[in-house]
């Protein structure tokens, strides 16, 4: 049982990593019947010479379980950044999403939205 779960989680992580590298977009979970928009915001950081840009977005909701999280890279040419979930997420009522530039000196622009039931 535990091994099976481990294998499923490993595949999910591989799929996620492949997706993130290919598109720089992060999408976790899916819309369920009754899912409503809980939060949306655009995060924009300009590049600063010699620095990486990083920002943690924390969202929490006292009532609803998160069903889908997206961080869409609006710099669609792949120079934008990387998004990852560092705590909470789908199935939780909170999530911390880390937004990072792809290289020193670069900024990022992400559109983040969170749905839940
Ligand atoms: C991000 O901010 C920069 C500098 O303020 C601006 O030039 C750019 O248009 C902004 N991009 C978005 C997508 O808001
Ligand atoms: C959230 O998930 C918990 C645990 O699965 C469940 O008991 C609860 O009913 C869910 N809440 C909503 C609003 O769906
Ligand atoms: C990538 O896209 C951003 C935003 O659309 C733009 O400011 C930047 O110049 C583009 N970079 C390249 C290398 O095309
Ligand atoms: C996020 O949710 C988890 C599980 O419900 C909880 O244990 C944790 O304390 C929460 N974290 C924050 C910062 O609210």
Automatic annotation (TrEMBL):
Ranges in a coiled coil:
none
Keywords, A to Z, come to:
Signal
Q: Aminoacyl-tRNA synthetase among the record's keywords?
A: no
Q: Which InterPro entries match?
A: MBF2
Q: Which residues form the signal peptide?
A: 1-22
**Pfam families hit by this protein:** MBF2 (PF15868)
Tagged with keyword Chloroplast: no
Parts of the chain that traverse the membrane: none
Identify this protein by name: CLUMA_CG014341, isoform A
Q: Which organism is it from?
A: Clunio marinus
């Amino acid at each position: 049982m535990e091994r099976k779960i481990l294998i499923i989680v490993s595949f999910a992580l591989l799929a996620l990593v492949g997706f993130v590298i290919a598109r720089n977009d992060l999408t976790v979970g899916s819309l369920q019947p009754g899912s409503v928009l809980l939060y949306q915001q655009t995060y924009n950081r300009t590049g600063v010479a010699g620095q990486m840009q990083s920002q943690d977005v924390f969202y929490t909701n006292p009532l609803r379980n998160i069903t889908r999280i997206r961080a869409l890279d609006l710099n669609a040419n792949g120079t934008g950044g990387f998004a990852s979930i560092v705590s909470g997420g789908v199935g939780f009522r909170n999530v911390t999403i880390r937004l990072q530039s792809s290289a020193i000196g670069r900024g990022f622009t992400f559109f983040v939205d969170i749905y839940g039931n």
